[in-house]
Amino acid sequence: MFSQACRLCGEQLNQPFLDLGVSPLANSYVKSIHHMEYVYPLRVVVCEHCYLVQTEDYETPDHIFTDYAYFSSFSDSWLEHCERYVGEMTARFGLTSSHQVMEIASNDGYLLQYFAERGIPVMGIEPAANVAAIAIEKGIPSVVDFFGTRLAESLSAQGKRADLLLGNNVLAHVPDLNDFVAGMKVALNPKGLITMEFPHLMQLIEHCQFDTIYHEHFSYLSLTAVRRLFDKHGLTIFDVEELPTHGGSLRIYASHADDPQYPVSGRVAALLAQETVYGLTDLATYRNFHRKVFRLKRALLQFLLERKSQGRQIVGYGAPAKGNTLINYCGINHEYLDYTVDRSTYKQGHYLPGSRIPIYDPEKLKETKPDYLFILPWNIKEEIMEQTAFIREWGGRWLLAVPELQVVE
Prior knowledge:
Blueprint: E1 15-23, E2 40-46, E3 53-55, H1 61-65, H2 76-93, E4 101-104, H3 112-117, E5 122-125, H4 129-137, E6 142-143, H5 149-157, E7 162-168, H6 177-187, E8 188-199, H7 201-206, E9 219-220, H8 223-232, E10 235-243, E11 249-256, H9 266-278, H10 283-287, H11 289-309, E12 314-317, H12 321-330, E13 340-341, E14 359-360, H13 364-368, E15 372-375, H14 381-387, E16 397-400, E17 406-408
Parallel strand pairs: 4-5, 4-7, 5-6, 7-8, 12-13, 12-15, 13-14, 15-16
Antiparallel strand pairs: 1-2, 2-3, 3-9, 8-11, 10-11, 16-17
Helix pairs in contact: 5-6
């Protein structure tokens, strides 16, 4: 029996989805190899009533997000995605200097900077003070706080409400989904609209993206569950798009339920039907997932053991949270992976949590000339392969594990 109730509907949880053993917090990079770490069970269950998938609570958002190691601007392809989004939203909804754009979990200003360049007023809300400081340096007004009804009511009392309220990859990070979405309704102008992007649970299952499961991702989302959540708080999802980002994401569009200006697109019903056909409302779909995960683990460990016994050097590219889930679940340490590299100066000179694999600047690849470069942030593999094309000079190859083991020459 799971120890808590569903974050969406409040029913008691008792249907397992996946057990990944124990793991440290995925973004808690270690400064010293002698540093002590806490580890926590990493178990996920599905609600048999609303089909929300969620982890068990062990740490508070304050501990996880107050000093944060993820900076969105280090990915060129993600910045390109966000710049396209700004152009599309501006054109589709006629945004001008008379509108207010508000982003929840605005990080380092990676997206709002493009609205600001167009003269559209922006406001960021970001709980991690170290990350928000970078946005403020860019000239992006930012409130350092967690979003919910308390903050939304405070901003509304100051006359600050959004014409476009957006959040990218934040909904999964929220422990109190009902308070969060209720706050969005308060923060939205009567004729305003919401867009939210989040990884699609259907893609997680289909492509064995189990490494996207970690403690700061409290929930794993389908349109089926999210529509129920928004309906509960007087918000209507009137459109949905499928995106390639993060291994397959959804972008939902929502407005106040009593606002008739946005008719509901047929794409909403079509995707809900697709999720049903796939099996997202069938508990057997969730019960069988662990078999796919174990097969992937076994194949990866066999590959690493064989290549290391042949004297090959294998190193990682990236120090993403998803990589830490995969590494710790598979029991990989520096005996399998000599080191990893990352463009983020915030991570360089540290060690991956749990595995204690050292993190270096990407220039180290040219010093050691590894045989295999294991791409941990597989969602941006094309970008990484382009940046590291030089490994071909010494016969280096790229290694991918998700959705299946693959070597690219």
